[in-house]
Amino acid sequence: MNVIDILVFAVYMIIVLGIGFYYYRKNNSAKDYYVGGNSMNSWHVGLSVVATDVGGGFSIGLGGLGFVMGLSGSWMLFTGLVGAWLSAVLLIPKVIKDGHQFHLLTFPELLKRHYGKQVALVAGIISFIGYLGFTSSQLLAGAKLAVGTFPELGLTKALIIMGSIAMIYTVFGGIKAVIYTDTFQWIILMVGLIFIGIPISYVTLGGYETISKTLPAEFFSLSNLSWVELANWAITIIPIWFVGMTLYQRIYACKNEKTAKKAWYIAGLFEYPIMAFMGVALGLMARVAAAQGLFSADGFTSEVGLDPEIGLPMLLKNILPVGLMGLMLSAYFSAIMSTADSCLLAASGNFTTDILGLNDKNPRTIRISQIITFIIGFVAILIATAMTSVLDLMLSSYAFMVSGLLIPVLGMLYSKKQKPLAALLSMLFGGFSTLILMFLEVQIPYGFDPILIGITLSLTIYILVKN
């Protein structure tokens, strides 16, 4: 990589770290650290939401989907749009008032008000485990990007570098640093994709005529997937908008209900169609580049044997001129860290508030929170070293949280009669049955994801025990 590209990338990293240290001085309590003092505006929160939800896993993962199936991979983020807008209408009006009135810092604290301490503790553990895995998936995405660009770096070294940077500014700055760096990072990603990555790739590969002749026609269709694949994405991704700790933190961080709803509408539009089609389009073009032999210097004369999630960073490395490579690399690292930091802070909030039981009234909470955030980040790096697929790890984390938490949340929102035992058992059986099915690689009929079994079991138990 040219020294100019390295300098561009270094300046980006310094700015991100600078934001973290700036807000280190602004945090006076756990409320500031985890929910920004309930004072954030819609555009900052909306861009932070989409940056967190799309982030590195979906950026690199979408590129992998584009590489494998073409434009049909964009349907994954259509489910994100549906989830964002449904939660804006159904969830936000029911939780933001409680969040502000009772000074809530986490999602399980809301469950505690309806179901009691035991349910909140179990929810905190499930959410913590899920976000620990999700943080690892984002760090793995960053490492894959780095290795695709600098093969000599190695995955482990790349993970250490990515994890360290994300940990430092998150540990010091809290939610305000996360949200403001997310805004900055998302702008960089959009500028990088729209004005650099896509147009230069398109021209370098020979334009539409050459690209369309290189790949089969189904890569340019929106129907190159089965209804089961779309259903699996829907039942995994849409519900996360109702149980995601990172999302509750941002709802609480908003000034009021109107601000929060606007932020969620903004996030939905950026997910689909904007990011959805840009991500898969670059993945598709990476497939074209591989077929044209553009990666032969890296040992790949065609797309055969190439990790689909590495294709996109290899494309960027081979086509971008000096200077722009550094900016584009910064753009993708932006996406990755904007999710990693949010998930790291969510896991820290779950552990500090819901598992240890510390609250905003304890003057030592903010210092303890920072120490725990650092430790969790270190553990996330270790987990990432044992994994291979960004998208698999990310969707598995989603599935575990959704199957365990969705039914109790819906019961909290819409059931007049709430029974703590019903919520507790549905969490345990729903979440861990999905985890066991995934671990044992049990084949579900018609190719459905194990999450469907987990949610069904959770709902069945909730209804039986409640009645």
* Percent of residues in helices: over 70%
Q: How many angstroms does the end-to-end distance come to?
A: 64 Å
Under CATH, the homologous superfamily reads Sodium/glucose cotransporter
Order of helices and strands: HHHHHHHHHHHHHHHHHHH
Number of helices: 19
CATH topology: Sodium/glucose cotransporter
What is the approximate shape?
Answer: globular
**Class by alpha and beta content:** mainly alpha
Query: What gyration radius follows from the Cα positions, in whole Å?
Result: 21 Å
Instruction: Determine and state the CATH class.
Output: Mainly Alpha
Given as residue ranges, the uncertain stretches (5+ residues, pLDDT < 50) are none
Overall number of domains: 1
Can you give the mean pLDDT?
A: 84
Overall CATH architecture:
Up-down Bundle
Largest sheet, in brief, is: none
Task: Provide structural commentary.
- The protein is mostly helical and 467 residues long.
- It starts with a helix and ends with a helix.
- It is built from 19 helices and no strands.
- It has a single domain, classed as Sodium/glucose cotransporter (Up-down Bundle), CATH 1.20.1730.
- The mean pLDDT is 84.
- Helix content is 79%, strand content 0%.
